[in-house]
Structure formats: C-alpha cells, structure tokens
C-alpha cells in the first residue's frame, strides 16, 4: 500500500521559503513534492528553502532521490536547500545513506535543526 503526503509552502518575511511535508515520501507521493520544488524555485527564487520533515512517517529510495535532485536544482540556481526537523525515521535513512551532511543535518539524531 502506498502512502499519502500533504505539502504546504509558506514564504517568511525574510524571503525564506518553508515547505512542510507530512506523510510518506514514496513512489506515489514524490510527484507532488517535485512539483512544489520546481514551482517554488522557478517562481519565488528564494535564497533559502527549508524543507520541514517533522511529520514524514516513511521515506524510501525514491523520496531520498527526490531530495537529492531538489538539492541539486536549488544549488544550480543559487538557492540553499536544507532539511529541518527530520523525523527519526528520515534522519536514520539520511545517515545510513551518508547524506545527512549534504542537507545541513547533524550526524546524530539528537539535534534536528539545520545549521545556517
């Protein structure tokens, strides 16, 4: 059974865009996040885009690949993409794959905030 995901985007006063993701990031839901990333990067062109993953309950390799692709797309246009508040499951997946540092996450799960 595939999961569901809900994504909301908000722009802060300083121009930072925050994308909140809830639910699962898998083959059935990554299309919505891909569209959100593309629309935000090309329309808002933020200097910083924060993806909050506090309420992501599952993420498979498709979800990880999307985050990496989003990071690369953001970097190409001069936007810094960081992950904030990853759930324990997500943080473990990113540590296991060696990608935690790419997204500004600490190596341990005890501190889940990004480092500016």
Automatic annotation (TrEMBL):
GO terms for molecular function: anti-sigma factor antagonist activity. Keywords: Membrane, Transmembrane, Transmembrane helix. SUPFAM superfamilies: SpoIIaa-like (SSF52091). The chain crosses the membrane at residues 48-70. Residues 6-116 form the STAS domain. NCBIfam families: ant_ant_sig (TIGR00377). PANTHER family: ANTI-SIGMA FACTOR ANTAGONIST TM_1081-RELATED, ANTI-SIGMA FACTOR ANTAGONIST TM_1081-RELATED-RELATED. Belongs to the anti-sigma-factor antagonist family. This is Anti-sigma factor antagonist.
